[in-house]
Amino acid sequence: MGFLDGKKALVTGIASKRSIAYGIAECLHREGAQLAFTYQNEKLKPRVEKFAGTFNSNIVIPLDVSSDEEIKNAFKTLKSEWKHFDILIHSIAFAPSEELQGTYIDSVTREGFNTAHEISSYSFAAMAREARPMLNKNASLITMSYLGAVKSIPNYNVMGPSKASLEANVRFLAADLGPDTIRVNAISAGPIKTLAASGVSGFRGLLKHVESITPLRRNVTIQDVGNTAAFLSSDLSAGITGETIYVDAGYRNLGMTFVTN
Ligand code: NAD
Ligand code: 0WE
Q1: Ligand 1 in contact with 94 (CB < 6 A)?
Q2: Hey, which of 91, 169, 214 would you mutate to test ligand 1's pocket, going by the most ligand atoms within 8 Å of its Cβ?
């Protein structure tokens, strides 16, 4: 008996076993949810098919969120498998790598700004709209954010404004879907070494720094994030919507990062 028995979840954003979406899939599966998956491109297709198999799923759908057509088609395909579903996991972000280094003011371009916002924020609203007619009562939509939404973090640059936009997106979607008893929340995770993070120079140093000063004196894992996603997916969190929940071992509440003990 799991607390997600009988729920159906669509999971986006798996690129590897280290992906946050993979940790979320593990926890949703453990609690009894049935899963469906999307993959960004042909290169990722066989990998995601293999992971789906380990979660007893054979629903694997192409979805590159840069195309409105693909977003529409993904939900059309899902509908041929499931008439209705309960949980949508959005775990997708992208900005051009040149814009994740140097100062914000010098690296940001019109095109990079638009790309980051489109892929990392707009796509969540677009998916929510397509999913809406298929969502059951008490459905839960979850996206992934980062502290750069609310604080300036070196090199995170244009991703910061795009996560701020994503968190605002969560509040507006929560207002629209709340009357249908559909909830929308973000999880703001601490840094985790995933594919998206491995391209970032100085990421190891960032992990070491966080580990040394964060209240729990450790980095978070994809299982920490997955367990919170399972809670937010379930009726245990029925009173929470429009919220950004921090899964960061306490980092964001530090007022000073100077170590005294
Ligand atoms: P990841 O590289 O494993 O996952 C990123 C995913 O985004 C990949 O599966 C990729 O296929 C997908 N993606 C990118 N562009 C896409 C597009 N056009 N269409 C469809 N999919 C696309 O990395 P991750 O760290 O698991 O990232 C998942 C989410 O978690 C992102 O929103 C990221 O901002 C967020 N996040 C990551 C961290 C961290 O430190 N790793 C911390 C907080 C939040
Ligand atoms: O949201 C993210 C990473 C998102 C991301 C990563 C990449 C790398 C490869 C978006 N686009 C790209 N584009 C690429 O070409 N995180 C929260 C992880 C992260 O990224 C950072 C961080 C942290 C934390 C970048 C700089 C500083 C800190």
Answers
A1: yes
A2: 91
